[in-house]
Design goal:
Elements: H1 2-14, E1 23-24, E2 28-30, E3 34-41, E4 50-56, E5 62-66, E6 73-87, E7 90-106, E8 112-119, E9 128-130, E10 133-137, E11 141-144, E12 163-167
Parallel strand pairs: 2-12
Antiparallel strand pairs: 1-3, 3-8, 4-7, 4-10, 5-8, 6-7, 9-12, 10-11
Length: about 180
């Protein structure tokens, strides 16, 4: 009986709202690499199903290609970059600034993933980038766009934007543990 009780407690610990943020499956990647950004949407908006997911692409992230999702329409919104980047030896000054999935229905009691491929910034000064996400439901919406203030704890944010830490290819890139 005791082990069942412990399992129940562990389950409760897993279901706290803190784990219910929209988050990136892989939170680390190397500068200048091609990265498959997989955003996990763990629930709807206070019980209602998710029907639209919009992800803002931060400056420096280029060559964005969304992954099609059965049952959903995918759309990209393009615009000018603040700077010019190089892609396959050519200068690139505009591209995808937002990716949106719509027309599907993700029930509150299920989770799903929304993904795109992109090239990450090569600038070694950029240690972390954020992808603000707007999750729209049948009733209401949630903007996962809060950024931690310098020196504050990101865990204290109610609606944190998904974050990606950037590093050199050799640091933390040992995949043998998976």
């Amino acid at each position: 009986m005791k082990h069942l009780l412990l399992a129940g407690i562990a389950f409760l610990a897993l279901s706290v709202p803190a784990s219910a943020h929209v988050s990136l499956e892989t939170g680390m990647a190397s500068w200048g690499s091609y990265y498959k950004a997989v955003f996990r949407v763990p629930h709807g908006c206070e019980g209602s199903a998710t029907t639209h997911v919009s992800i803002e692409i931060p400056e420096g992230v280029i060559s964005v290609k969304p992954m099609p999702k059965p049952g959903w329409k995918v759309k990209t919104v393009t615009g000018k970059y603040a700077a010019t980047y190089e892609s396959h030896g050519k200068p690139v000054s505009e591209g995808v600034k937002r990716v949106e999935w719509s027309g599907g229905k993700l029930p509150d009691d299920q989770f799903d993933e929304f993904a795109f491929l992109a090239r990450l910034p090569e600038d070694k000064e950029i240690m972390r980038i954020y992808f603000p996400v707007t999750q729209t439901c049948e009733k209401g919406s949630v903007s996962w766009s809060e950024l931690p203030k310098p020196g504050s704890d990101a865990h204290e944010l109610k609606y944190p934007a998904p974050a990606l830490d950037l590093m050199a290819p050799h640091e933390g890139m040992d995949h043998s543990h998976h």
